Amino acid sequence: MEIFLDTSSIKDIKKWDNLGFISGVTTNPALLSKEKGMPIELLKEICALMGERPVSAQVTAESSEKMIEQGIYFSNLSDNILVKLPSNLSGYKAQIKLSQLNIKTNITLCFDPVTDCLFAKAGATYVSMILGRSEDFNLQQSSLIKRTRAIFEHNSFDTKILGASFRNPQQIELAMSQGADVLTIPPNSLSMLFNNPLTNGGLKDFEDAWKTINDNDKKTYDNF
Ligand code: G3P
């Protein structure tokens, strides 16, 4: 299982990439809109930072013809770009053409295993199963990845299942346990994973207990 970073922030990419477990980056228009400067320049900078690791760039075009043109344009920017297409009919038509051109894709806003199956048959590289966005509106998607996994295994599809749109560690665990190949995690959700209140509270308990030992007695333990 691989971990991608769901962000367009250079600062966050540098911060988390230092830890060595980031295998790629996913961007989208909303993430790019949060950063300063021209989105295309930012995208190039992200691609350069990631080296050979994949970076998803989402089309903003609405017709399939324009999506194809924009996808070709993105793929010419850098060898590690994947074209992010929406899980609708225009995206599907664009997928067919981009497959013929051997351009890798990431299908986004996927909420239906059957639609995923059609994109997989058409040669999509990844399908992004969106967990947090649906739960924001109280639509439970707790078995989405599991159902998609079953169809993909039955058909021996090469398309990878990417768990996306995480808001909390619970949704990340769900995607991991249901067999997502990749998880794209926003920086704030990654921070939550390393800032568990129970871990912090436990550490405070240990610190308080340690203070009850006199300085001389604990000197040989603490001095190294
Ligand atoms: O890569 C996933 C992203 O495009 C959707 O995430 O957080 O906007 O629901 P979000």
With helices defined by DSSP (H or I, 4 residues minimum), what is the helix count? 12
For the record, give the distance between the C-alpha atoms at the N and C termini, rounded to a whole number. Answer: 38 Å
Overall geometric form: elongated
Percent range for β-strand residues: 15-25%
Which ranges are low-confidence, i.e. pLDDT below 50, for 5 or more consecutive residues? none
Number of strands: 8
Helix and strand content put the structural class at alpha/beta
Order of helices and strands: EHEHHEHEHEHEHHEHEHHH
Written account of the structure:
With 224 residues, the protein is an alpha/beta fold. The protein has twelve helices and eight strands. The chain has helices at residues 10-17, 29-33, 39-50, 64-77, 89-100, 113-121, 132-136, 144-155, 169-177, 187-193, 197-211, 215-222; strands spanning 2-6, 22-26, 55-58, 81-86, 105-110, 126-130, 160-164, 182-185. It has an eight-stranded parallel beta barrel, surrounded by eight helices. Helix 5 links the parallel strand 4 (81-86) and strand 5 (105-110). Helix 4 (64-77) packs across helix 5 (89-100) and helix 6 (113-121) runs parallel beside helix 8. The radius of gyration is 21 Å and the shape is elongated. The two termini are 38 Å apart. The structure holds SN-glycerol-3-phosphate. SN-glycerol-3-phosphate is lined by residues 6, 26, 28, 30, 108, 128, 130, 132-133, 164-165, 184.
